[in-house]
Amino acid sequence: DIAAATQVLAGTRPAIIAIAIACNVGILVLGTVLWLRLLPRRSPVASGRMFEVVSIMAGIVNTIPALVGLASGTALLASERGVGVRAAVAVLALDQLGEALAKVAVLAAAAFLLPLPEWMRAAVGAIAVIAIVMLVGLVAAARMGDGTVATRLGVGRIGRLYAWCGDLELLRHPTRAAVALLLALAMKVAEGAALLAVQHALGVELPLASAILVLGAVNLATMLPVSPGNVGTYEAAAVAAYRWLGVDHSTAMALAMASHACYLAAMVGAGAASAAVRSARVARG
């Protein structure tokens, strides 16, 4: 009932909604720091330029099909001086690995704190297997690609493969990899904080664990992009999670709509602003 949900939204406190949007912008800031750490050391990028890349990619991901957005972000990073396609693809691969591991951590925390709906329990094992396969595959690739082998093999296909594996250097350094994983987890904490802020903005009192459950549900449902910006998919998952927590349907719908709106405002707004700055700089030459 959209009308009833709108009535719930009428009592929203704007100041706390602003905090929710700020938490979601924090995801982009943390994502920028993460991508800077994922880059091979031979390919430094200024933090401001990296924020542009990350935020523009996030804006595209949340307006058109996500795969196009990821490809656009990779292309933007590759265009930075000293980076190139090889290093950019390595950063994207490591980023997706971190995202998968962070989602597993969120789901594990949700399962530990609260009973999960059946559809979430069924999906936990699948995403855990995906994350483990990605981890084993990329670690193995990182171990076999050390640059020296690539140089000996030349520029043929095998040589290019080994050279790309060499750009997964983060996985050959446990401390750097652990810091990167903590950053990926911190992005989820920021996203969960935004959900909590929206709850408070609408005057809904729920335990802290509720945000973890909703975050896990939303992360699961949006893994496969069905619609641009996951519009509809996000709301359906959030409503299902809130209903499982005992929230009435109208309030659950209001929470889902407000949470997604705050997320899109941060991602699309920051992406549009960064694109405008980048275009102005290109126009100036």
Describe this structure in words.
There is one protein chain. With 285 residues, the chain is an all-alpha fold. 79% of the residues lie in helices and 0% in strands. The model has no long low-confidence stretch (mean pLDDT 87).
Summarize the structure.
By secondary structure, the chain is mainly α. Helix content is 79%, strand content 0%.
Count every helix, treating DSSP H or I runs of 4 or more residues as helices: 12
Q: What is the straight-line distance between the termini?
A: 52 Å
- Major β-sheet, in short? none
* Helical coverage, percent range: over 70%
Poorly predicted regions:
none
Shape field: globular
Compressed to H and E, one letter per element, the order equals HHHHHHHHHHHH
Mean pLDDT: 87
How many E-type strands?
Answer: 0
Oligomer: single chain
Bin the strand percentage.
under 5%
Cα gyration radius (Å): 20 Å
Structural class: mainly alpha
